Amino acid sequence: xxxxxxxxxxxxxxxxxxxxxxxxxxxxxxxxxxxxxxxxxxxxxxxxxxxxxxxxxxxxxxxxxxxxxxxxxxxxxxxxxxxxxxxxxxxxxxxxxxxxxxxxxxxxxxxxxxxxxxxxxxxxxxxxxxxxxxxxxxxxxxxxxxxxxxxxxxxxxxxxxxxxxxxx
Length: 168
What we know:
Elements: H1 2-11, E1 21-27, H2 29-46, E2 51-52, H3 66-73, E3 75-82, H4 90-106, E4 109-115, H5 119-124, H6 128-139, H7 144-158, E5 163-165
Parallel strand pairs: 1-2, 1-3, 3-4, 4-5
Pfam family, one: TIR
Domain TIR: 19-168
Protein name: TIR domain-containing protein
């Protein structure tokens, strides 16, 4: 079944779709950059897997950069590392929105890692995800559609089969 899904996904790529990276890593830097994510990146790199990881300087901007959007769209897989503060970053949520949009558009395969968070907290936006969305609802009260889209993409990624590192 998994190989059938992979074959079907790869056949959905257009002949003109350009792949620059095998893997795009989406993560909340302050939660996982110097530990889990850096180790994952190193392991993928050592196996010869071309992986995009953002530069710390990229997050200083107010909106997601065209370079990052291009990297997402030119990646075959996205590994989304969902940590306790992931939803408090509009940067991460915009990345995730683009990633989820690539599933039908490019056939991207999304692999979630629930890094010390319960998948049901992500899916139902409870715990720290509820706290983050309470703040987002206030901050974006003039653009509620944006917040609803972020809620939907989080539910979508939480409904995917992935890896769960239980809460500490």
